[in-house]
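Practice problem: predict the structure.
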Amino acid sequence: MLLLGLDPGLRNTGWGVIEAESNMLRHVANGVVRSGTGLLANRLLKLYEDLSLIIESYTLDGAAVEETFVNRDGQATLKLGQARGIVMLVPAQAGVEVAEYPANTVKKSVVGYGHADKNQIGHMVSILLPGSDVRSPDAADALAVAICHAHHISTAKRMEVIR
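Answer:
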């Protein structure tokens, strides 16, 4: 199963593709979409176009997005929400089912602790996906989302067998 993890951001959106087979995970690719500066509409368009190219490059079986953390700055939260909408739209438009996970769930799935920091996440991603070259915390977070999704799918399948 080929899974895409996405860590939404207006400036930097991390993405990571993994292959999950049984309990085995393999790193496929990762990176960051950078929307640049300027008008919001142009930045959202850049995010849409670049994510579309990434999704066209793989035959995905699923995608997962980290839920937005709401902060005190309403303007920033609204802009992040718009970017997150694009991040969810692109795979859905390509016919890929999109799951959502809270940040604490992602961290707990990968690190074992729901309040892990970016360094801990990056370290565990490198252990769980040996040989992966992850050069950005945003890409590491996206791979963590993909790993979390793989674990949840695997658990759901085991539960179906038990029933």
